[in-house]
Amino acid sequence: MKILLTAAAGLQGSLLLPKLSALGHSVRAVRVSADKDDELLALGAQEVFVGDLTDVDTYTRALEGCDAVYHVGPSGIAREKEYGFAMIEAAKRNGTRHVVMSSVYHTIIDIIQHRWKRDIEEKLFESGLSCTVLRPCDYMVVEHYVDFPWRTGVLPMFWSVRPDRRGSFIDIDDLTDVAAKVLTEGSKHYFANYELAGPDKLSPHEIATILSRVMGKAISLEEQTPEEFMKKNYGLVELNAKWRDHLDVFESISAWYSKYDFIGNSNVLEWLLGRPPTTFEAFARKILASRSGKE
Asked: CA end-to-end span of the chain, whole Å?
């Protein structure tokens, strides 16, 4: 099967691409710029398409000849809806057999990015295309939850670190295992919405405690404003127009997360994986082991 994979060098794409290749699929990997062609080919892509997929004609060319698409929207930018709507029109033009969209857990809540994805989902199901929507909760991001605390001894949070506030997490390795399964099995998953959450429901303090235990040193919490978080963790001095879009999203997340829990149920993820989902502690231990060459 030939699959179009968007955001192929991103958090999901870089893990999903070799999995799809190992399963025997032909993958056309998409990049906005041509600076990572060799990296994508090394990960298993048969070809690399370069272009801005907010343009319907460009997305149509990218999708031509593909049986399925795994659509990952650009993170935290206002053009995400354009990108999603272009995907839907391109899939209709090409008669694409299966559209799989990476969305977000709880699209009904009042966060900017959730509203964008909700609107894309609505158009997708109105389109009549055979589709599957994956709705993962917060990612276990290596750079944030392992690398930065290991290097600095600090776990930064850009929302309230009150001890009773809890969140669910998903290992991106688990998420991409599900994506590979859904794409491979195809029609079995048409018109399904899968809400995907790991087994933990952790407060920031519990996360810091786990990291302290796993790393063998004290990891402290640091509450930051969204702007402070972006500047410190992305190495920015000032926020240009592109990063201001991201800041709007971060501030929207911060406002909601500071008031409410963001938790889910792991049953669907476990069913799709055919095994227990990865816990946060197992994730942290796995990454640290790989960093030290023990895995």
From this structure: 32
Which residues partner with 183 through β-bridges?
Answer: none
Handedness of CA 229, 234, 239, 244 (dihedral sign): negative
The burial of 240, by beta-carbon neighbours within 10 Å (0-12 exposed, 13-18 middle, 19 or more buried), is given as exposed
Instruction: Tell me how far the alpha carbon of residue 53 is from its chain's centroid.
Output: 18
Strand partners for 2: 26
- Please state the φ and ψ torsions of residue 63, each to the nearest 5 degrees: -90, -10
SS3 69: strand
Burial 53-85 (b: 16+ CB within 10 A, else e): bbebebbbebbeebbbbbbbbbebbeebbbbbb
123: nearest Cα among 76, 57, 71: 71
Nearest to residue 45, comparing CAs of 15, 61, 21?
Answer: 21
Distance CA 160, CA 54 (A): 35
pLDDT tens-place string over residues 34-79: 777 899 999 999 999 999 999 999 999 999 999 999 999 887 777 8
| Residue 25: pLDDT band with limits 50, 70, 90 | very high
CB 8 within 8 A of CB 176: no
Beta bridge partners of 50: 31
Span 105-126, pLDDT tens digits: 999 999 999 999 999 999 999 9
Q: In this structure, is the dihedral angle defined by the CA atoms of residues 229, 235, 241 and 246, taken in order, positive or negative?
A: negative
**β partners of residue 70:** 5, 100
